[in-house]
Fold this sequence. Notes:
The protein has helices at residues 12-22, 44-55, 73-86, 103-114, 126-130, 133-137, 146-152, 161-166; strands spanning 29-31, 35-37, 58-61, 67-72, 92-94, 98-102, 118-121. It has eight helices and seven strands; from the N terminus they run αββαββαββαβαααα. Helices cover 42% and strands 16% of the residues. It is elongated. Helix 2 (44-55) packs across helix 4. The relative contact order is 0.22. It has a single domain, classed as NAD(P)-binding Rossmann-like Domain (Rossmann fold), CATH 3.40.50. The protein has a three-stranded mixed beta sheet with strand order 2-4-6. The longest helix has 14 residues, at 73-86.
Amino acid sequence: MPPSIRRLPIPASELTALELAAAGDHAAVIRLPPSVHGDGDKAFVPMLIAIAREKGVSGYVGTGENRWSAVHRLDAAVLYRLAIEESVKGARYHAVGDEGVPVKDIAAAIGKKLGLPVKSIAPDEAGAHFGFLAGFLTMDAPRAAALTRNALGWAPKQPGLIADLESGRYFEG
């Protein structure tokens, strides 16, 4: 069973948007998942690839059953446009294409493309192996977007995170 979902503090930007909406301004919130992938991605996935190359192993913490939600950046861009055109004041939307990709599957896709072994890293060794990413790699962050899809007619069309990794684009250069 995956670890329990951690509640993160509400970001100041979200609180500000909700205050603006309450004051009558047309403001809404779009919540992005841990992985916003696609061309130009400079965040978690490229960092995990760099760590795997450096350490010679594509790792995950513990059982790797914890999940990350994800969205392709082009699908997120469409959602932003729809939110500008059609959103309800004060609404909160989840930009989620993949509702919950097991972190072990992300490590496996990276290991396969790099030709590296995939290995569980003990939780007490995660900080030394992954640095500041260790905390993110232990998060169970599945999210659903059914309400967002229904409210705005949003339908992600781009490849999911694993398909994007398997395409090889992250490993060029």
